[in-house]
Every structure is written in structure tokens, then in C-alpha cells.
Amino acid sequence: GAKILIENQLKGIRKIAAAGVTIKVNTVLVPGINDDHIETIARTVSALGAVMYNIIPIIPQAKLAHVPKPTMEQIVKARKQASKYIQVFLHCQHCRADAVGVPGISEYSRQVYQGRIGARETFSHG
Predict the structure, then answer these.
(1) Number of structural domains, the chain?
(2) Residue 124's pLDDT band (boundaries 50, 70, 90)?
(3) Neighbouring residues of 64: CB distance < 8 A, sequence distance ≥ 6
(4) What are the CA-CA distances from residue 99 to residues 117, 124, 125 (Å)?
(5) Is residue 123 part of a domain?
(6) Cα–Cα distance measured from residue 55 to residue 109, given in angstroms and rounded to the nearest whole number
(7) Cβ count near 5 (within 10 Å)
(8) Is residue 119 part of a domain?
(9) What are the strands, taking DSSP E only, across the chain?
(10) Hey, what's the torsion of the CAs at 104, 13, 71, 36, to 10 degrees?
(11) What's the predicted TM-score (pTM) here?
(12) Which candidate, 83, 90, 123, 94, places its Cα nearest to that of 29?
């Protein structure tokens, strides 16, 4: 299950980086679930060729409504751990998965999605 998914994700990062594509990896920070893995993830994806890491605090809802939202201290700690290995993306806390480019700097969503997504803007203030 999860092992195969992770292996495929890592293989994909390696292949895309080898092709010269800039890679930003997103991780949703879930206290008590993956907060102890952030540093390892950052080290691993950086070694494979990712150049930017975005740590997104979970928004507790639906089946995960019981999960506590990360505190600012937990977010800062995770970012500090990750920054030892990779540039940490600090532009916003809740970046959309359909964002293309770097929000506010190089926005390519309209060209890539050709108007097929409903949202006009990919920037989120979190």
C-alpha cells in the first residue's frame, strides 16, 4: 500500500529532476502523525533533486476533524528542520494543489489548465 506509493513518488522525483524540471514537494503537517518525519522527508527529496519544500498545516475536517491543527511552534520547528536540507517555501500556508509556477512570481495555471479549473487565483493566504 503506502510503501509502493512512496517508492513511486520518490522514483518520480528522481526522474523529473533528471529531466531538469524544478520540483517543489508539498507535505501536509499532521501533528502526531508525520511531524517526526518532516526532516527525513526533506533530506530524502532534496537528495533526489527537489529544490523546494512546502509544509502545509492540516485543516482539520471530515474524517480528520479530530486531529489538532499544528501550532505555530510546530510549523516553525518543521520548517527549521527541513531548511537544513532544502529551501522551504514560505509564500503561503495553504497552497493549492493546482498551482503552477511560483504564486505571485511566475503563474502558468491559465496556460496549463486552459481555463478548465474554476478558480482564477492560485494564491492563498492560509
Answers:
(1) 1
(2) very low
(3) 30, 58
(4) 11, 10, 14
(5) no
(6) 21
(7) 9
(8) no
(9) 24-29, 52-57, 87-88, 101-102, 106-107
(10) -160
(11) 0.73
(12) 94
31 is in which domain, residue-wise?
Answer: 2-90
Evaluate whether residue 125 is within a structural domain: no
Amino acid identity for residue 122 in this structure: T
For 84-120, write each residue's pLDDT tens digit.
Answer: 999 998 765 555 555 556 655 566 656 654 554 444 4
Beta strand pairing call for 101-102 and 106-107: antiparallel
Question: What nine digits make up the cell of 44?
Answer: 530524502
Q: Is residue 102 part of a domain?
A: no
* Cα–Cα distance measured from residue 116 to residue 61, given in angstroms and rounded to the nearest whole number: 27
Q: Distance between terminal CA atoms of the chain?
A: 31
pLDDT in tens, 24-75: 999 999 999 999 999 999 999 999 999 999 999 999 999 999 999 999 999 9
